[in-house]
Amino acid sequence: MPSQKFSLAAKQEVFYSICLAFILLLRTYLPKFTSYKASYTSGFADDLETEVKAAKDLPNPKTATARRKQLRIDAAKAAKAVRYGWLGLKGHIKKAYPKASQAAQLQQAGWEYFKKGASDWSAIKSLIGMANDYMADNAVKLKENDNMPDGFPAQFIDLGKEFNTVSQAFEAAEQNKSNAVVAKNNANKAVYEKIITVATDGQYLFKNDSVKRRWFSYAYQRAILTGGACSLRGTVLDQNGNPIPGATITSTDGKYTATTNAKGYFRITKMLASSYIFNISKSPYASLEQPVTLQPGIAHTIHVKLSPALEAVA
Q: Which residue has the higher pLDDT, 29 or 296?
């Protein structure tokens, strides 16, 4: 049975890296974990790592998207060709039968399925079967007066075979995708639940150690790997405490930059946790270099004051 949808709260590649980080922490503090729960052993850690790698190695359902799209296009074209071929049969029926009986004949040949076939591929399959049976049962009448060519039924059969081949390939690809999604989802969920248990137990074991307790935070590990939860904000003022608008704040590596607003305020988001030196400048003030160490999951704030350039020289 397919599992219910759940969120990893991270991209899959990041999730697997988070899992390996927790397994490393588990191994590092294994004696403490084992004293808390006997089930925490080196074998448990090994098995969990194997499970993570197995989940990672499962096929990604997105990788076959291009092929499925092409099969869908091919099947749609084949369905259109079948309906176009059936219109040829319709023309032969109209020539073979008087107007009063044409509607009944068209129904026998699959008229209702022709109408549904514009948006329903199962109707196309029924249309093929009814049309083939109809031509076989009424071949003599349809061929009278050089009406339906001898080769027409075979041509229509070929159109049907082409549609069935392509549509079945598409249906198989869709089923494979569905199976892959379920398998990947189930594997990820099983791993996620175990990793969250390790994280929860780790936070309990280190409840009196704020640094280590943070290490066992899922959000913290995700922030380390993505940098998305790190930010820097602050104000740039003059020596009298007045805001300096238009001041630029740029990391010396050139990765991050911002400009203060009318209130001297700036903010930089989605930063990687690391140590930086920011150059803060605005003419006619002397530039200032400000070292900053950013930690994951924390919004850091700085307030700097710039001195007039001449005063700085003096």
A: 29
